[in-house]
Amino acid sequence: MQPLKPAFLALHPARRTTLSPMLYPTLCWALCLLGCLTPEGPPQGTTRTAALSPHRQAAPAYAENTVEQLLKAAERGSAQAQFKLGEAYLEGLKLPLNHNKARHWLEKAADQGHAEAQLRLGFIHYQGLGVLEDKELAEEWLSKAAEAFRELAGEGSAENEEKAKAQLQLSSMYAQGLGLPKDKKKAEAWLKKATPWLISAATQGHAEAQFKLGTMYYNMHEGIPQNLEEAEAWLSKAAAQGHAEAQYELGLMHYLGWGIPKNHAKAVQWLSKAAKQGELGAQFQLGKMYYEGKGVPKNAEKAEAWYTQAATQGGAEAQYRLGEIYGGMDIPQNHDKANYWFVLAARHFMAAAIEGDVWAQFRLGQMYYGGKGISHNLEQAEMWYTRGASLGGPKAQFKLGELYYGGREIPRSHEKALEWYEKAATQGHVEAQFELGRMYYEGKGTPQNTETAEAWLSKAATQGGAKAQYRLGLSYAQGKGLPKNAKKAKAWLSKAAAQGHVDALFALGHMHYEGEGSAKNLEKAEAFYIKAATQGGPEAQHKLSDMYFEGKGIPQNLKKAEEWHIKAVNQEDVEAQFQLAEMYYRGFKMPEDEKKALEWYEKAANQGHVEAQFKLGHMHYEGKGTQKNLKKAEELYIKAASHGGVEAQFKLGSMYFEGKGIPQNTEKAEAWLEKAANQGGAKTQYKLGEMYYWGQSIPQNHTKALQWLSKAAAQGHVEAQFKLGEMYFEGKSLPKNVEKAEEWYEKAANQGGAEIQFKLGEMYHRGEGIPRDKGKAAQWFSKAAQQLIKAARQGEVEAQFRVGHMYYEGKGLPKDDSKAFLWFETAANQGHARAQLKLGFMYYGGEGTPKDEQKAEAWFKIARDNH
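^ that's the sequence the OP posted. Answer follows.
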């Protein structure tokens, strides 16, 4: 748990890594490669100091006169002053970054035997900071530093802080093999020599010793057994004395539950103390907590403020987050500020990425991918993702898996996606484990294997992955890929729901609604649906709307039904808006309300919904929900018609022929009508054929009528086929042909309803429009009767009247006045006027029932009033 120094916190403040002090200085030399990325100037509200020194703390540690004094002391030969001056130039903390000046002063201090200066020089040459990389020279300086530390450390236990520091440094160098042969035993030996002083100093209240001791107990540092209680105790003591790094570490422990129970309130308390002292990581973490609403109320403005403080100190991750926020996430969009912070972040990530930092490589890949602070470049994005992934970065591995799986930016390869997902999943990446489970479940990039799928999903779910928990729960609920098990389904869905997973909340609501795995419980269903709906789940919002509308299991509440439906529609697509307008217009599930229908039709129409444009035009045409406005109707019809709306094209054609509200224009009328018909709609073709046949709104033209009726008939349009038969029999615009007429009549009757079959029977019976043929008449009457009796028994009033008529006439059914009377009575009682009249005649004549003039008169009056 060794604390991260600002240079590394700048990249990823929340990351936990044990690092040698050798690695503390920032990898500044790579920044020169990014000169082209430097923004022209800081956005309003950002200090110029921060812009000049973006990678480290902006506030100078020395006042100007102190820097001058330091310079004078260094020139007089003070090794400590020379070291501090070199470090200031190296890290850009107190003076502008300048590698040449840094090396100059560090060499002067190192030549005098200054151990820390020798250590820094070793690092400079080892990493090639402002100089060519030189491992031999680095080894020479590191060895000198080790010897100097050995002299400082002495052979006995530490007697003072400087000696303890030297011993700790030697322990670290032996442990990592830097300047000294890697030797675990020697590392532990030097640590043990320093430990008594640390414990003694810590016990006497030395804050730095308390902090160091706390980190050692947490990290099991070379030979020190891990003791989380001791770690928390020592860190708390240091934190209570105002030690900023201890406050930060303690805050993180409480936030993440490292060795102690999670406690966001205590996390905020300690992080705030550290942040106010300028601790970059604490500032970043507070910004993150306020942004996500964890431990504190969600507050985008406070998140922005804390991120800005961290970013101004050079926190690259904070700079990146600010770029995202100013890009339009939760605060007003500001492209200049977004670009400014993205550019600074890109500079840092580039420098660290070149040196092999996997997190920086991942972020750099993201920035090239999204064109954030750097020009969009998919090749560069893929290259950096691949570098980070190859070095074991799970985030980069997961992202590569996503890219190969999606196949949008790079060629799709489920096999490569599986490979990278597996690498990330093996390192515990929850999303990768979920995706891997899904691929095994679906058999993508690998043979289907439900056992392996369940294993990976279980790993992700056990780590708290809500998506995996939901997927497992759903699989158990539906019995897809896993044995159906309502108990396990509820268990996993409940875990996902506890994390606010909307679909899991909805699924639990559904299980209670349907009574799956337990007794049906509509109150619990409603409660889960409300939770999901409140978080914006459109399915839950629709379901609640239905429940309140139907009043099933809960009190009916049309107002709530309407409110939830509107919420669902407001976040859904244009089709949902159109459907809501239809519901208001028809009074289906919503109170009929033409004004609200008009409002929603307008919203959908403004987004280009063709049918909504037509319906809106129709409302203006009819004056429904608004004043009649034929000009507005024409405009809307033209919009819909121009995008292929058949109804709008047809209506426009009719308007131009009739000249209602707009100038009559036969040419435009025919053009629009034929456009509608040419789209292949049989209904439209039939309608146009009828118009030409009768001369309705357009000049009569039997040739064109035949053309359009033939097209509709060829598509199976029953009325068109019947009309075509009529034209062949009458010889209109084509030679009379009785056989063709019969052929078309029978095509219509064979696929048509009972009405057409009955009509064809009547025609054969009477010889009207077709040669008389009692045999064929009886055949079609019989077919009609079969359909009519079925419909009559299902309660269709017109069918009941027809069946009564057929029994009365003996057409298709044996003549039977009693049965005729019963069917007429059934239809009459449902309000059928002609059946009521027929019933009156049967009572009057005593047909199928005893004669009763009073009842006859009563039914005649009912029929008259109902006509």
